[in-house]
Design brief:
Elements: E1 2-11, H1 15-22, H2 26-34, E2 39-46, E3 54-59, E4 68-77, E5 82-90, E6 97-110, E7 113-124, H3 138-153
């Protein structure tokens, strides 16, 4: 069974400023610092924020779904401003998912605005199809709002 959920949020900063936050490790550092209700820890396991980087995400107590997992940066396109990560260990893979991919995309809207689009794509084995209900765009909505507030506060600081 294949599924997809997505969320879009307008950011009042140029796409290049938003991409500076989302394109590498900065968003992970920000989330690790500012969202203790969502993430207990965001750890860099391997890499420097480029392709092949591995992060270990540990969710806070009470967050629905798996307690954590390791994800790998599988695609980074600086020109199109797209970054994809896939769960490579633990988490959703232990719940019968064969794919759990998160895509961050920054779309230029105008000189001073952009759209942040986040998408979760997943595949789950038929015998575990009921676990698809654990997939929620809500953590991405929370991350997008945090990023928007951060970018607005630090507008043009680059």
């Amino acid at each position: 069974m294949f599924g997809e959920v997505e969320h879009e949020l307008e950011l009042h900063v140029p796409a290049r400023e938003a991409w500076d936050l989302f394109g590498g490790l900065e968003i992970g550092k920000l989330v690790g610092r500012e969202l203790p209700e969502l993430f207990q820890k965001v750890e860099l396991i391997e890499g420097d924020g480029g392709l092949g980087t591995v992060l270990k995400l540990t969710f806070a107590q009470g967050v629905p779904g798996p307690s954590g997992y390791k994800e790998k940066f599988t695609k980074i396109d600086n020109e199109k401003r797209i970054k994809e990560t896939e769960v490579v260990e633990g988490g959703y893979l232990e719940l019968g998912f064969t794919l759990f991919r998160v895509r961050f995309e920054v779309i230029e809207k105008g000189e001073e605005s952009s759209i942040f689009k986040s998408t979760i794509e997943y595949e789950v084995k038929e015998e575990n199809a009921s676990n698809a209900s654990l997939v929620s765009v809500q953590p991405l909505v929370t991350i997008a709002q945090l990023a928007k507030n951060y970018l607005n506060k630090n507008k043009h600081a680059n």
